[in-house]
Amino acid sequence: MQVTQRGGRFVVVDDFLDAATLAELRRLMERSTFSEVDSVLYPETDGKAFRSRGTYVKGGGQGEDGAPGRSRAFERILQQVVAEPGIFGTAGQDWDRAGFTFWRYPAGSRLSWHNDAGGGRTGEFIVFLHEEWRASWGGELMILDEEPVTSVRDGDFLAQMELQVRESASSPVAIVPRPNRLVLVKAGTVHQINRVDPTAAAPRRTLTGFISKQTAESGAQARDALLRLVDRSAREGQ
């Protein structure tokens, strides 16, 4: 495992999981039930994607919503999230909740420019789980590594993000979906998933999730339990 790229609002870690944990996570993905979903941005042009039921870890290892279940990979991800306070903030203080959902993007699908802001989110993670990915197959995660839009012209937030990308003095960073690559992204960062090329032999497969601050009254209890989970994971990783 090594950090291979670091921007102001993102981090890329290659060879993230050991072989056994990666194989376990892929088996969990294959056992999961997927539903076809329309893009929440531009359903007419983005194409279809497939999403598993999600689960949340609030600490102590317990999950909600039943799927995709538990994996040692979840704890490895949380350990890496804790190691990046510049992206996510401090565990227990700035975030106490992590979501996990499997996604499949087949050939022809994409997800247009957006920023995943709001909902108490401090950031998100993406782990690429397909076993092979050629650079010509597309599906890159595009990241505009600059401060997000804070004002909206004409009330069209998506159009404003498109405009920010177009008028930016810098070019978006293209992160190839290399297998067993982890990407950590700060909340509010403008990004998109490039269209998967028709030549792709298999869907783009990921485990994706948001790191967020719970607002319910049980937040303090969840925070303490999550900190125990992270501490245990850190000891096991030593």
From TrEMBL:
All copies of domain Fe2OG dioxygenase, residue ranges: 94-213
What SMART domains does this protein's entry cite? P4Hc
Top-rank taxon, per record: Bacteria
Q: Which Pfam families match?
A: 2OG-FeII_Oxy_3
Cofactor(s) it depends on: L-ascorbate
Q: Name one GO molecular function term.
A: dioxygenase activity
Q: Print the keywords alphabetically.
A: Dioxygenase, Iron, Metal-binding, Oxidoreductase, Vitamin C
Q: What is this protein called?
A: 2-oxoglutarate-Fe(II)-dependent oxygenase superfamily protein
